[in-house]
Specification:
Elements: H1 3-12, H2 22-34, E1 41-45, H3 53-58, E2 62-67, H4 70-79, E3 84-87, E4 100-105, H5 115-125, E5 126-134, H6 157-169, H7 185-192, E6 195-207, H8 211-218, H9 223-229, H10 232-243, E7 251-262
Parallel strand pairs: 1-2, 1-4, 2-3, 4-5
Antiparallel strand pairs: 5-7, 6-7
Length: 265
């Protein structure tokens, strides 16, 4: 993970997914798609506060969770003592090869400094026949998602309006502002050696009773990098515009792709 990225997530760890359970909802939806059996040796790669770890433990998986942000791992370990937790760089895992049955990463690969290295490490630590799944990539000949926000399929209402604001204010970022890369999921998986590629979907709908809560949520995860990288006057304007979003729909609806591949063997 980029140095600035893990430091940001270290700063927001206390509030991450606590304002609204956005990533927890996604984690449950992603696990429903992956459907690992009890006893599955599962690695949560870039685990955050445990959005994937929690439903994996509920399913009876044997969970190892790693994240580059120490504050995230401190809280995850306290919340989920059944998981084995490590502060660790996803691009250089200090874990044995051929160890896990399933590796999954939610909204992490695209913010790594070297996404291909993260995917290659997932391949290395998987047992032959194991599967790697991740969100946060575009399809081949991809979508023109702006780096720095979670690549998702845009929907109308609150989500569409919020996305439109990010698109408008992206013009005011300095070069290389915000965080993240546009990555081609299929290319990353194939280059690492994965076969039997799949592209599934997960959907969430999270309610925000008012725009003040929406703003607090935006400042509690990766969106914060975008907001903090805006010039001061544009940041104040962005805040004002978020607070003035129409109040006719308080539900943020998102759909993301889940790309996966199998390690031969």
């Amino acid at each position: 993970m980029e140095d600035s990225a893990w430091k940001l997530f270290d700063r927001v760890a206390a509030d991450y997914d606590q304002v609204a359970p956005f990533f927890a909802e996604y984690g449950a939806a992603i696990m429903d798609v992956l459907d690992p059996p009890a006893g599955c040796r599962f690695l949560d790669l870039g685990a955050g506060r445990g959005a994937l770890t929690a439903p994996a433990l509920e399913r009876g998986c044997v969970v190892t969770a790693v994240d580059a942000a120490p504050a995230m791992i401190e809280r995850l370990a306290a919340d989920y003592p059944a998981a084995v937790t490590h502060v660790m760089n996803a691009q250089a895992l200090s874990l044995p090869s051929d160890r896990f049955d399933l590796v999954a990463s939610a909204f992490v690969i695209h913010i790594l400094d070297d996404p291909a290295a993260g995917v290659a490490e997932a391949y290395r630590v998987l047992a032959p026949g194991g599967r790697f799944a991740f969100t946060g990539g575009s399809a081949r000949q991809g979508n023109n998602h702006r780096p720095g926000k979670n690549p998702t399929i845009q929907t109308p209402s609150l989500g569409g309006r919020l996305d439109a604001l990010f698109e408008e204010f992206a013009a005011y970022l300095h070069p290389n502002g915000s965080m993240g890369h546009m990555v081609d999921a299929a290319d990353l998986l194939e280059e690492a050696g994965f076969v039997d590629l799949h592209n599934d979907r997960a959907e969430v709908a999270v309610a925000f009773p008012d725009n003040a809560m929406l703003w607090r949520w935006a400042m509690s995860h990766g969106y914060r990098a975008f907001i903090e990288d805006l010039p001061d006057d544009r940041r104040r304007e962005f805040h004002h515009r978020v607070m003035e979003l129409p109040a006719d729909d308080h539900v943020l609806r998102r759909t993301t792709g889940i790309w996966s591949g199998r390690k031969p063997g």
